[in-house]
Specification:
The protein is an alpha+beta fold and 389 residues long. It folds into three domains: 120 residues, Butyryl-Coa Dehydrogenase, subunit A, domain 1, CATH 1.10.540.10; 100 residues, Butyryl-CoA Dehydrogenase, subunit A, domain 2 (Beta Barrel); 146 residues, Butyryl-CoA Dehydrogenase, subunit A, domain 3. It contains ten helices and nine strands. The chain starts with 14 loop residues before the first helix and ends in a 6-residue tail after the last helix. The structure holds flavin-adenine dinucleotide. The site of flavin-adenine dinucleotide has 21 residues, from strand 1, strand 3, helix 9 and helix 10.
């Protein structure tokens, strides 16, 4: 049995956390792994798993039971995302968007009516959500966004476009961030429902990464939004950034799952692949690669766990979450690349999950704050000097 829990990480987990992790792991083994390579090749999301994931309580799992959610702690949430991304970053992305970028802002900034209308249905996977922040011309600096919401007699009129939006084309509701005035302090969140006149969400095709995930544009042309669809309890960039904080935390765990998948594949392969009359695992250079991989994975998992404990205690800072996202995604990409070399030519084959994970991680490195932007967030935290501009 390949060694993947080198530091006995499981000993840190409660029986309930272990059980949740195992349920998610079993789900991925039975429902994701058998179909994901084919979905990836065809560039489609396995929509048949959306509701079963809801039935297992994977969406918005830290939110309270009164809204149909599981009320779990952040370690359990992290373990679920770890297991989902062990399957594919696209599956984890679906759950991250639904949970952290759609359910979280509705729960945190929405009216009671909005919560009752959307949260139970989103939790069950009966409704799908997306999050529109990035625009064609504004990615790392969303404060300059061009999308505008103007007041009308009955609510708001939305004009503009969002780009690279996960789940956009299949979403029933889009959480869209737009300026209502001249500067970033006027940014507000709107719930834009599917079918609203003036709203369209064409899918972005021809991707080399996150192929088993739907990515879309959101286009708003004089799109009328009723007053009851504005999120009333937040203004400014704090709204979207607090959502991203939730999602980035999940990504820190998800990256560990991806790395565990590529590491386990490389380890098993190295033990069975014979060259020069012996397993390639017996060569010192291969062992060095494996030793580096499991060391970095183990450190990353402890980092995610510690940040999760701080989060549960209400003490985590955005910069700490940046550190975990930045480190763990870069780690997973490095592990995937090393795993690819251990598999030789087979490393590029869809018979093995390694290159799919590697390509996916190129997106994960960029979205939810690029690696560089998280470097600057940590830099600003330690020096007290912002180097963004
Ligand atoms: C598959 C996928 C799914 C996505 N899903 C969503 C989604 O659901 N919702 C959503 O809103 N967005 C989504 N995004 C968008 C993502 O969040 C953005 O791509 C990301 O924020 C970076 O923006 P950009 O691509 O415009 O790059 P840019 O901001 O143009 O950055 C380009 C390069 O310049 C660097 N750079 C920028 N500013 C600085 C600086 N001040 N100092 C140093 N370097 C800098 C960046 O690090 C990067 O290397 C998704 C992206 C992808 C690829």
């Amino acid at each position: 049995m390949p060694q993947t829990d080198f530091l006995n990480f499981d000993s840190l987990l409660s029986p309930e956390e272990l059980q949740i992790r195992d349920v998610a792991q079993q789900f991925v083994r039975e429902r994701v792994l058998p179909v994901i390579e084919d979905c990836y090749e065809r560039g489609v999301y396995p929509t048949e798993i959306i509701k079963p994931m809801g039935e297992l309580g994977f969406y918005g799992c830290t939110l309270p039971e009164e809204y149909g959610c599981a009320g779990l702690n952040n370690i359990a949430y992290g373990l679920i995302t770890q297991e989902l991304e062990r399957g594919d970053s696209g599956v984890r992305s679906f759950a991250s968007v639904q949970s952290s970028l759609v359910m979280y802002p509705i729960f945190t900034f929405g009216t009671e009516e909005q919560k009752r209308k959307w949260l139970p249905a989103l939790a069950k996977g009966e409704k799908i959500g997306c999050f529109g922040l990035t625009e064609p011309d504004y990615g790392s600096n969303p404060s300059d966004m061009a999308t505008r919401a103007e007041r009308t007699k009955y609510g708001w009129k939305l004009n503009g476009a969002k780009m690279w939006i996960t789940n956009g084309s299949i979403a029933d509701v889009a959480v869209v961030w737009a300026k209502t005035g001249a500067d970033a302090r006027s940014i507000r969140g709107f719930l834009v429902e599917k079918g609203t006149p003036g709203f369209s969400a064409p899918e972005i095709k021809k991707k080399h990464s996150l192929r088993a995930s739907i990515t879309s544009e959101l286009i708003f042309q004089d799109c009328e939004i009723p007053e009851e669809n504005i999120l009333p309890n937040v203004e400014g960039l704090r709204g979207p950034l607090s959502c991203l904080n939730q999602a980035r935390y999940g990504i820190a765990w998800g990256a560990v799952g991806s790395a565990l998948a590529t590491y386990a594949t490389a380890l098993a392969y190295s033990l069975s692949r014979i060259q020069f009359g012996k397993p390639i695992a017996s060569f010192q250079l291969t062992q060095r690669k494996l030793a580096e991989m499991i060391t970095e994975i183990s450190k990353a998992q402890l980092l995610a766990y510690h940040v999760g404990k701080l989060k549960d205690a209400g003490k985590v800072t955005p910069a700490q979450i940046s550190m975990a996202k930045r480190n763990n995604v870069a780690m997973a990409l490095e592990v995937a690349r090393e795993a690819r070399t251990i598999l030789g030519a087979n490393g590029i084959s869809a018979e093995y999950p390694v290159m799919r994970h590697m390509n996916n991680l190129e997106s994960v490195l960029t979205y939810e704050g690029t690696h560089d932007i998280h470097t600057l967030i940590i830099g600003a935290e330690v020096t007290g000097i912002q180097a963004f501009k």
